[in-house]
TrEMBL record:
Source species taxonomy: Bacteria, Bacillati, Bacillota, Bacilli, Bacillales
Membrane topology value: Multi-pass membrane protein
Molecular function GO terms recorded: cellulose synthase (UDP-forming) activity; cyclic-di-GMP binding
Signal sequence coordinates: none
Entry protein name: cellulose synthase (UDP-forming)
Amino acid sequence: MEYILHYYPAAMIALLLIGFLGCRKSPRFKKPLIIMCLITNGVYIVWRFGFTLPSSGPADTAMGVILVATECIGFFQLLIFYTLVWKEKKRNPELLDDQDQWPSVDILIATYNEERHVLKKSVAGCLNLDYPKELVNIYLCDDGKRSDIKKLAEAFGVHYLMRENNEHAKAGNLNHAMSCSSGELIVTMDADMVPLPSFLRKTVGYFKKKKVAFVQTPQAFYNEDPYQYNLFSGANIPNEQDFFMRRLQAGKDRFNAVMYVGSNTVFRRTALEEIGGFATGVITEDMATGMLLQTKYQSVFVSEVLAVGLAPETWTDLLKQRDRWCRGNIQCGKKWNPLFLKGLTPMQRLLYFDGILFWFFGVFKMVYILAPLLFLLFGIHSLKTNLWSITSFWLPAFLGSYLSFKAVSDRQRSMSWSHIYDTSMAPHMAMSALSEFIFKKRFDFKVTPKGVNTDRRKFKYMTAYPCAILLGMTIAALGKTLYDYLILHTFDINVTSYNLFWVLYNMAGLILALLVAFDRPRFRSSERFSINNTASFSTSSSDQKHQCELKDVSDTGARIRLPYTNDAEVYYQVDSLVLDKVGKVPVQVIWTTKDGEDIEIGLRFEEMERELYIKLIGYMFNEENAKKADREKRADTLSTAVRFLMKTEKSPDAFKRKYVREAFQGMGTLLFPAASDQNSHQIVIKDISLSGCQIETDVPLDINGNVLISIDEKHPDQRLALVCWTKKKRKRYTAGLKFLDEHSGGASA
């Protein structure tokens, strides 16, 4: 044993570093690195079983068994993970041949309470599909029985379906739609998903093989999830679901175990009919339906993003979604245990079992968080060892896991962010998993009221308090350790050091977990795509076209930029925006702002005809615009926390476009409360809304101070305003004011 302790860690660490450095030169080093990772982790597990189980008391023994069992499960999941990423299945595209043989397609959009403008984009996206129109039928399957959704279907010329009751929820809705349609293929789309024009052309060809039951494409998102948005990290980390939706699904494709994820999927109708339609009796019908089909048929995964939708926008919504997925997967496992389901291969059984086991990650993470805390606070040992032994066996295993994961993930995911994701959701997911598995009922956690305040951030304290309690315990444990070291002199480096390491490691995850619970307000009703294309606009006074740069666009408005000229009136008369392959879109100018030598103009789209709207959605939702950053960069814990602190607004920003700004450039007068000739100054009004304005002046203003202004010609009467922010450039000051008098309507800007 002593011989091993001297040479094993140094040899393995050296080999791991060589393998990792080799991966940077050639992908051939990845597989040897994975093998070394599994060896070091296997040795660690053997050592844990044979030499480290505590037996000094019932509490120590119980905690020791729980921790080592959790680590064994982790090793099993590690084996499955590296089996999936060992080799990716490379599929050649299956193109459609003779158009006379193309199958008919029914597109089912299941909806219950989604807003009309969300569904409108989805329907328009389906109407843009590059596939013979006579072969496609679109069905709005409305379990909400809403008259406005029926009118939407009629306006776009698609089928509207509703049923007598809402039995079996989404699965029942889809089965009802199956009974009302007859297409050879069936596409399921979530209400917020918008297919790209090539969706059918790049998926239908795989059904030339008779054994293919369904083709799954990734779920991708065109908005930022709460981790990206609340932590100001949209440009630094991919969407939290991307790694599974793209990388792990591609690995499952090798074993005919692709998971049906509820949307962006094409089915063969006859295969669905053979298993009785979409699975019912569980709240995640998708996982069960895919698994049942794979007992008889094959599945295909197309790794290209062919549809995009909306990720949960608030931290509370994300937790609700994961609670539903967690409980639904456990329900599926209890109703159709994959280990005994007839027709599955051994590898399919393991992969589906691992998929269900994954949803206990909250329980496993809580064990890892609580084990070192229980030792530091109460002296409960979870393992019996010394510092040199645990370093010799744990360090190579940890380093092997870290380096191999870094090598195979290709910056799509890091261990640090996996730790943050798991930690932030662990308390709630642990309760969801245990309540569903043991108690067979849901224990609801309280959430803050729906709706985001448009003026300030909102801390979701009712969902964050479990992590706050754990962070408090962590601080108490650190304080007690310091007291033991400085006052009692009972600090034992052999057993305290490694517990201290894990407490600090978990502490970083807990801090980020609390930060993500600060929901930022989302001011736009519709997500925008950054475009940076050339466009043109025309005005009410002339048919002449003016060239401009289109900065971003949504289905409700756009932002354009062009050089500023002295002929300012032209900017306020814009009445149409001309886009390639779309045409002339009617617009209204909402705001203007001067930026250096250029001017930016905010436009709101007016009501447009059906065909024009469909073309606009096609312009926005294409392969190029759907691409989002899918690699991590500058995303470590420290930089994320600093980014959060630097960018979080310390006071409400009065100019977040809650109210429409008038396009206005003019002069005004700044008056201080004791008005006199000595304290009035000429100012430039840069833009204005019902509730505030932006001014440029040559005198400094105090933030949170009150001023009086008059706006020459536009509003000659005096207005009382609050100074919300100031910015100095050379000897001029730009300031944001919020009106406080009766003209503001009592609202903030």
